[in-house]
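Issue 218. Parser rejects a valid record. Input:
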Amino acid sequence: MNIIVQKYGGTSVESKQKLELICNKIISCVNKNQNLVVIVSAQGKTTDELLKKANEYSKTKDNRSLDLLLSTGELQTVALLSMMLIDKGYKAIGLTGEQAGIITDSNFGNATIKSIYTNNIINYLNSGNIVVVAGFQAVDRFRTYYYTRSRWK
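Output the parser choked on:
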């Protein structure tokens, strides 16, 4: 199976208008019968805002809790983009890092991807879905959430 993977970072997903442009690019690929996996980051300054909030609420540098908090930014984008694609008449499924099968080491705040179990992604693609995956997100072998880059300041 040939799979196209597209990655969209913070500024490219920061508004509804920019997500509309991404929808158009995705639809163009799907209309060419391409299997598509889309990786998205948090919108605009969401990660920076979550980091600021973490620093306002707590002085404890607990990377595990921070990873959990930061993962919510990507989840918002995944849900919004998936809903927009569905509104346009396309099958789309949003996945967390865990649902996408992304496994990391156990290094909170700066985890490294160790493996990706692609069964879920392939099954959704085979069912005609556009697969939208949360970027910078994974779990370790103990099913603990990790953010795959260090962002604590």
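Fixed in the parser; the record now loads. The first strand starts at residue 3 and ends at 8.
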